[in-house]
Amino acid sequence: MQGLLSWWDGVELWLSGLGFVLQTVIVMPVVLLLAYLIALVIDALLGNGIRLLRRLRHSDRRLR
Q: Is residue 7 part of a domain?
């Protein structure tokens, strides 16, 4: 864990030493990729949750 934190500190120092435009060019693709992956996970979780609720609701109506 200490190695990862040390590496991250080096990357952070390197990135903070760059100009704003270069920081933006480097950081934005990473942030956009992370946001896209998080959106995919949330979409899948919500889709499966809604599908499960519909299945439960549909089976509940059969019992009546």
A: no
Number of folded domains that form the chain:
1
pLDDT in tens for each of the 64 residues of the chain? Answer: 999 999 999 999 999 999 999 999 999 999 999 999 999 999 999 999 999 999 988 877 776 6
Q: Can you give the residue range of the structural domain that contains 41?
A: 24-64
Cα separation values, 39 from 7, 35, 51, 60, Å: 28, 6, 18, 31
46 inside domain:
yes
Q: Is the pTM of this model over 0.85?
A: no
